[in-house]
Amino acid sequence: MYTDLTDKVVIITGAATGIGKAIAKRFASEGSKVVINYFKEEENPEGLVKEIEEAGGTASIIQGDVSKEEDVQGFVRFAHDTYGRLDIYVNNAGIENEVPSENLPIEDWQRVINTNLTGTFLGCREAAKYMLEHGIKGSIINVSSVHEIIPWPHFAHYAASKGGVKLLMESLALEFAPDGIRVNNIAPGAIDTPINAEKFSDPEKKKGVEKLIPLGYIGEPEQVASCAVFLASDQASYVTGTTLIADGGMTKYPGFQAGKG
Q1: pLDDT tens-place values along the chain, 261 residues long
Q2: Which UniProt keywords apply (predicted)?
Q3: Is the Cα torsion angle 172, 136, 30, 237 positive or negative in sign?
Q4: Domain coordinates of the chain in residue numbers?
Q5: 158 included as an active-site residue
Q6: CATH number listed for the domain at residues 3-248
Q7: Catalytic residue among 89, 130, 158, 217, which?
Q8: Which of 246, 150, 257 is closest to 211 using CA atoms?
């Protein structure tokens, strides 16, 4: 338990499913007041709120598109109006799709960049603006990807967006450090989420992914959530401008694991 997170107010984007949902539940279990952003009605955020409240936590929901400036400003305003402050902002919302680069439509490129990179920038900007105005030494956490490091053919737009998030985070961490605002990334590897459900339901495809992971297994959203609460807590008070990689070793050249090369 991170007792210093009790009563802290946290916004988590894209929090109705997958990694975002696990992060929301974990912060709520630590006593934080959670604002759950969602995009699509079918994501059923009301069910998550009920689950959190039944476990003794506090949560509210707000719909919106992270790529729209007015929506992100609304998230921060909603947190302030509902709970009186904002301490932590988690940029989790993200999308991907597979397209060979020579056939990548500009619409697909723009949609991924708008959500993953522009949406993260807007969240960072609005959270930092609020924290500066209210004298809050807060924490901003971006859920990036191992593909801020690893190239990914057929996903050039996704990799470009996550590479951008890496340098965005490092630049903002340097800029806001004198004000006590910490900015960090989490880079998940292969995680068992709805976006990966179809791929991991195929035993051969799942086995192929597991071969890329030195620990030998697919991660769970709760393992990423553990990273988020750590980075937001006082236990990480001297950590800023870094990426915490949660990937089972995927970024450590697993092809060399047996001493080959």
Answers
A1: 899 999 999 999 999 999 999 999 999 999 999 999 999 877 889 999 999 999 999 999 999 999 999 999 999 999 999 999 999 999 999 999 999 999 999 999 999 999 999 999 999 999 999 999 999 999 999 999 999 999 999 999 999 999 999 999 999 999 999 999 999 999 999 999 988 888 888 889 999 999 999 999 999 999 999 999 999 999 999 999 999 999 999 999 998 888 877
A2: Oxidoreductase
A3: positive
A4: 3-248
A5: yes
A6: 3.40.50.720
A7: 158
A8: 257
